[in-house]
Amino acid sequence: MNMSKWWIENGTFVTMDEAQPVVRGHMVVDGDRIAYIGEERPQDADDIAVRIDGSRRIYMPGLINTHGHAAMSLLRGYSDDEALQTWLQDYMWPMEAKFTDADVKWGTSLAVLEMLKSGTTTFVDMYDRMDQVARVVEQSGMRGVLMRGAIGLCPEEVQREKLAEAVQFAKDWNGAADGRIMTMMSPHAPYTCPPAFIESFVQAAHDLDLPMHTHMSETQAEVEQNVREYGLRPVAHLDRLGLFSRPSFVAHAVHLTDEEIALLAERGVAVSHNPASNLKLASGVARVPELLKAGVAVSLGTDSAASNNNLDLFDEIRLAALIHKGVSGDPTVMPAHQALQLATLGGAATIRQPELGALQAGLKADFIALDADQPHFYPRTDLVSHLVYAASGRDVRDVWVDGRQVVQGGVCLLLDEEKILAEAEACYRRLAGA
Ligand SMILES: CSC[C@H]1O[C@@H](n2cnc3c(O)ncnc32)[C@H](O)[C@@H]1O
Ligand SMILES: [Zn+2]
């Protein structure tokens, strides 16, 4: 009897696997991997000790959130309805300057709690004090792609310290938490990082053989400033600095020309599309259908809870499926299955983790279960449509990462939910001086 093997019987599985998109049947997990998924009973059924009744659940791959700043959950609702630069300079950065290790710990814990409970199993995080973030990931059972984001608007000596910190973090934590943590190198953005600073991150990424991530072309003002300062738009500027010579992905990419889209495709640069944040900060709407048509890997990010204002990736899926229809006037540009792909297979492609994003034998057992009895999942016309247009993170009941259950019946098993809420509230009160 193999005790690490267990079996979900009689479930409905939305797999994201083109060979069998919806399976009404069974899935076997062995250790951290999916061992079998199919309509027939598993061949070794009699050897599997643990069985779960899946008949009242809809199973799907865990969602992958490819851009965010988890600790900023502490600033949810602190400043709304501002444009990006005012929001950053007048509200976020002054508050973040007061953040301590404890603020990052509890802000990140709050975010991880929210993400896990709403079905996200992997998240990308760019922030400061990243050891705190990594420890929360380690404890929570979640998967994290982590990087020390660096703003270079500071003296060269401080820039060198930030680079050294980013390198140390990347070395210390890559592959940690049984392989659930992956690290990258991340200069914040072309408008906050002088060219030589970006080049030093590119060099470090080469030396460490790590991918890179940055914000890019989020607003029209950013593009214009880049042209004024460097004579180039952000895409050509980052390309010249060598950033795209690394495996890389950019957040936002809202303001792109046809030529820039072609260059991103040629260089294999992926894009994290953050529709809610881009709408809320009035940055615009990224040209996602054109990016996809050009062959660019596109995924979804929430950005932080301070510009979203939640971390429910189902909201981003729905938004992505809706806004591109509205902007283009063409209801066929983003069909439901493609919107769902952005948050699953697209996320896996963006972070270059081909073992994630689908329910398929041999892949990692990162998956979620939604309550199939909810009225908005009836009638049973088209489950993919229901997941995109009708579902929300509140439907998620159970979550597994690496084959380990981390949410059961809507409750996080490895985190103290009550304590996190209380500590996060106390952190905010202290930061706000209330
Ligand atoms: C250096 S740590 C990350 C840094 O990013 C800031 N940030 C949050 N949201 C955005 C956004 O939409 N565009 C650019 N920068 C953003 C955050 O305040 C942190 O300082
Ligand atoms: Zn961001």
From TrEMBL:
<dbReference type="InterPro" id="IPR032466">
    <property type="entry name" value="Metal_Hydrolase"/>
</dbReference>
<feature type="binding site">
    <location>
        <position position="215"/>
    </location>
    <ligand>
        <name>Zn(2+)</name>
    </ligand>
</feature>
<feature type="binding site">
    <location>
        <position position="188"/>
    </location>
    <ligand>
        <name>substrate</name>
    </ligand>
</feature>
<feature type="binding site">
    <location>
        <position position="67"/>
    </location>
    <ligand>
        <name>Zn(2+)</name>
    </ligand>
</feature>
<comment type="function">
    <text>Catalyzes the deamination of 5-methylthioadenosine and S-adenosyl-L-homocysteine into 5-methylthioinosine and S-inosyl-L-homocysteine, respectively. Is also able to deaminate adenosine.</text>
</comment>
<feature type="binding site">
    <location>
        <position position="69"/>
    </location>
    <ligand>
        <name>Zn(2+)</name>
    </ligand>
</feature>
<dbReference type="InterPro" id="IPR006680">
    <property type="entry name" value="Amidohydro-rel"/>
</dbReference>
<dbReference type="GO" id="GO:0046872">
    <property type="term" value="F:metal ion binding"/>
</dbReference>
<feature type="binding site">
    <location>
        <position position="303"/>
    </location>
    <ligand>
        <name>substrate</name>
    </ligand>
</feature>
<dbReference type="GO" id="GO:0050270">
    <property type="term" value="F:S-adenosylhomocysteine deaminase activity"/>
</dbReference>
<keyword id="KW-0862">Zinc</keyword>
<protein>
    <recommendedName>
        <fullName>5-methylthioadenosine/S-adenosylhomocysteine deaminase</fullName>
        <ecNumber>3.5.4.28</ecNumber>
        <ecNumber>3.5.4.31</ecNumber>
    </recommendedName>
</protein>
<dbReference type="InterPro" id="IPR011059">
    <property type="entry name" value="Metal-dep_hydrolase_composite"/>
</dbReference>
<dbReference type="Pfam" id="PF01979">
    <property type="entry name" value="Amidohydro_1"/>
</dbReference>
<dbReference type="InterPro" id="IPR023512">
    <property type="entry name" value="Deaminase_MtaD/DadD"/>
</dbReference>
<dbReference type="InterPro" id="IPR050287">
    <property type="entry name" value="MTA/SAH_deaminase"/>
</dbReference>
<feature type="binding site">
    <location>
        <position position="303"/>
    </location>
    <ligand>
        <name>Zn(2+)</name>
    </ligand>
</feature>
<dbReference type="GO" id="GO:0090614">
    <property type="term" value="F:5'-methylthioadenosine deaminase activity"/>
</dbReference>
<feature type="binding site">
    <location>
        <position position="96"/>
    </location>
    <ligand>
        <name>substrate</name>
    </ligand>
</feature>
<comment type="similarity">
    <text>Belongs to the metallo-dependent hydrolases superfamily. MTA/SAH deaminase family.</text>
</comment>
<feature type="binding site">
    <location>
        <position position="218"/>
    </location>
    <ligand>
        <name>substrate</name>
    </ligand>
</feature>
<feature type="binding site">
    <location>
        <position position="160"/>
    </location>
    <ligand>
        <name>substrate</name>
    </ligand>
</feature>
<feature type="binding site">
    <location>
        <position position="148"/>
    </location>
    <ligand>
        <name>substrate</name>
    </ligand>
</feature>
<feature type="domain" description="Amidohydrolase-related">
    <location>
        <begin position="58"/>
        <end position="406"/>
    </location>
</feature>
<keyword id="KW-0479">Metal-binding</keyword>
<keyword id="KW-0378">Hydrolase</keyword>
